[in-house]
Amino acid sequence: MPFPKDFLWGGATAANQIEGGCREGGKGLSTADVMTAGGKGVKRRKTIPLEPDTYYPSHVAIDHYHHYHEDIELFAGMGWNCYRLSISWPRIFPNGDEAQPNPEGLAFYDALIDDVIAHGMQPLVTISHFETPLALQQYGFWENRRLVDFYTRYAEVLFRHFKGRVRLWLTFNEINCMSTQPWVSAGIDSEDEQVRMTAAYHQFLASARAVRLAHAIDPENRVGMMYAGHFAYPNSCDPDDIIGTMDFMHKMMFYCDVQCRGYYPAYKLRELERQGVTLPVQPGDDEVLRSGTVDFVSYSYYLTHVTGKKTRGILKGLNGLDTGYKNPYIPKSDWGWGIDPQGLRYSLNYLYDRYQLPVMVVENGLGAQDTVEPDGSIHDPYRIDYLRAHIAEMKKAVELDGVPVMGYTAWGPIDLIALSTGQMSKRYGFIHVDMDDDGRGTLKRRKKDSYYWYKKVIATNGEDLD
After folding, report:
1. Candidate list 19, 131, 143, 174, residue with the active-site label
2. 404 half-sphere exposure, CB direction, 13 A CA radius
3. Residue 206 lies in a domain
4. Residue 464 resides in a domain
């Protein structure tokens, strides 16, 4: 049996994409709360201040804030032993810089996490998942070093408050999105590489401090970093394409290098020097980074890219990264994302070979349009086919390649707001939610065919994928 007995099976969500309750329980606004809905070919906008008569998907999302018990019961019904969730920073510190946390926010997560544990699931908590408190704009968001202290205070509150209940943590979701979607990642609204790299440096420091705190508060804590899984194949064996691909991967992987190794790689330092970018290093920072390395690597995996001499230095956006090349060997999803199961095996090997740390796939799934039949059933064989193929490749990475994979949490196990478009029609879930792209619907939950398939996969520890 390739997967160990303690393999973690479950699903992953983000507070800003499922919770809603935007103004309830003392919660403050976040960077996600000023993002409008988009669609295929329609870019989401950020509007500050909020505009009247404008739909902001995160404000209600799928109302998990009021439906969490029902949702957790549905998750448990699939046999999960792990649930990756995120905590909304402005629900705990509404403005981000308060001296004391919001009691109502902690009470909500007390109830939620206790419910998760009561249903036999281990919580894996993302501390910051694209929800920087909007009020921190007064400091310039993550360009300001003070955010390192604000984040550290927030993380310490979580470590102490949930001690013994949460032992698996991720510091920042998809931290390399600083180079592709800096507003989403850090409230940064600038094309200036100095600004972006200053913000990234501060997040590295904050993550390292959090890792050290987590270990000091509870030695049983394990803290991981989380990478937006961008992996690339060279367009050809032309040496210029090979170097172009190396350049692309360097721009992504340095984020992992710093968090896993504790220092900036030489290739990045030389690149910053060429760009005239100066890191805001202060005395003691190097030791913090060295001593705050993570315990494991986690990442999202949806697609692979083709890169080459035309892509050197190009980073255009999260969903697909238009590299100027296409892969003729793989199909695409309804939203144009390449479907490459073998790339998952490749990426698992790539990360383990590079860092020799345990690896966890914390996001993987297919965004597709579903149809509710007259009898209420939802047949989604395309989703089952997608997940089956990816899990089969993950199994090969474990069984044939010896990669120590900790677990697998499928993305969007219940339909939620899509990050890239703000849509509900781009559905990932095993569970359907009656809500449309304009925020209309009953919020009724329905199990799809994939719900029962995933339940069987988990019950057999990944052996039965039929």
Report:
1. 174
2. 10
3. yes
4. no
How many structural domains is the chain composed of? 1
Is residue 369, in this structure, part of any structural domain at all?
yes
Lookup: tokens for 374: 């007259």
Record the pTM. Answer: 0.97
Write out pLDDT tens, residues 442-459: 999 999 999 999 999 999
Candidate list 131, 143, 363, 393, residue with the active-site label: 363
CA-closest candidate to residue 126, choices 254, 225, 17: 225
**Would you call 273 a catalytic residue per the annotation?**
no
Domain membership of residue 249 as a residue range:
8-459
Going from the C-alpha of 205 to that of each of 202, 288, 429, the distances in angstroms are 5, 7, 35
Within 10 A of 154 (CB to CB), how many other CB atoms are there? 24
CATH (domain of 31): 3.20.20.80
Find the DSSP H helices in 302-380.
Answer: 341-355
**What is the identity of the amino acid at 111?**
A
**pLDDT digits 0-9 by tens, 319-335:** 456 788 889 999 999 88
What residues contact 308, with CB distance under 8 A and at least 6 apart?
Answer: 234, 235, 236, 238, 240, 241, 244, 245, 323, 324, 325
d(C-alpha 343, C-alpha 35), whole Å: 31
73 is catalytic: no
Answer whether residue 466 is part of any domain: no
